[in-house]
Amino acid sequence: MNLYVLHKKHISNKHLCLGAAILAAVFVFTMPDIHAKAAERTEDGLVLVEGGTFTMGSPRTERLRGKDETSHEVTVNDFYAAPYEVTQKEYKAVMGKNPSRHKGSDKPVENVTWYDAVNFCNKLSEKNHLKPVYKVKGRTVTWNRNADGYRLLTEAEWEYAARAGKKGIFYTGSQISSDEANYYGYYPYLIEENYENNTNPDVVEGDYRGTTVKVSSFAPNAYGLYNMHGNVSEWCFDYYSAYKVKQIKNPAGPKSGTLRVNRGGGYNDYAKHLRFAYRSVADPESADQNLGFRIARNKKGIRSEFTTKKSFTVKQKKNPKVLIAYFSDSGNTRHAAKLLQKKTGADLVEIEMENPYSNDLYHEAQVDLYAEKRPKLKTEVSNMDQYDVILLGFPNWWATAPMPVFSFVESYNLNKKMIYPFVSHGSGIYGESISDLSKTLSGTYIGEGFEFEYGGGNRLSSNLSKWLKRNKITKWKNYQ
Q: Which of 207-216, 355-364, 396-405 has the lowest mean pLDDT?
């Protein structure tokens, strides 16, 4: 455990008794003596990150970079950051519950929304007699940048802290192994270009643990921060948007949006998603077993407030008009789509290409992905405007949706509609498909997804029924 409740006194690095810990008033991070260099710490164990100016984003020459990683100069003030991701034990001590899918007291808490993370920060501040940072009123959040309580890192602070002075792709250099971070080690950086005939000695496949690990695992960076690559991706404060490329100081993102940024990649992400510059996004009201957070504090406050508002909200109709649209190859997604159609009576359409992939489809899909190609479709929905909800099915290929799925969703105006993805996979869960769809459809509500491995097993039908009920798609009666 990393956070302890203690009386305000000198903090040692010894393990402390949990029973005594819970009786007092200050949470403290204990830190192993293996840092690259000594770091100034607050009484509660957060480490000093000395501010400065750095180049945020990635250069055009960085392989597998995203279009939203535009390189630009940013300046951040000094701040304190937690050495570890918030653990399940810490979260439960403050919030009274543990929502995590991968149980373990010293593992990171996950399956938490952005609002859960913000509320944790405020409650921890109150517990430790600090001034809460956030004022939450509905979907409007005001950040008091002068308050001394706990908060999330901004996106710029996160990247600055993760880099710890490095200018490359990962803290470990041009590659990162599964011995250095917890990720989907079968897919090291650049394996996509060397998948069928790997002649690159630097591209070495590793292990896939399939779960989170203790937050103290692996070596820290030069600031004494652990797991800035992998384990769980970490919520940041910012709404997502294109970068402002002019030099800016202490940026906090746009004042409105629909998606909040998360950074660092998680246990089931590919190495390319662990890059310093990679930006993942999610609806702040969504939770994922791959997504947690770490906390920070000001060293010196900024005398200002920053108010953010959600750009739009969508309220689902009581009896929505539903379309089930799916792309399938082996038949797993098709099977799920037909079960959904039977349960709901909704309209069903298969996303079909004009020139379907051959037997070498995985390679061909990969080529389309890197070319950002949008294959032409045979499928056309002539009356898309009538639908309120789209249940969108596809397999997870190369950690995202197949390109024909993007061809489909980009063919229509889906603003203000609700999309609920159902995703078949071989163990990669959603990959970054939800994030990629959210970026593509910024005016569309991407709701809770449903994931199933291969054919989904004998519980697929009942699990789909539960998913429909949770999302209030309950007009039809057959939920067996």
A: 355-364
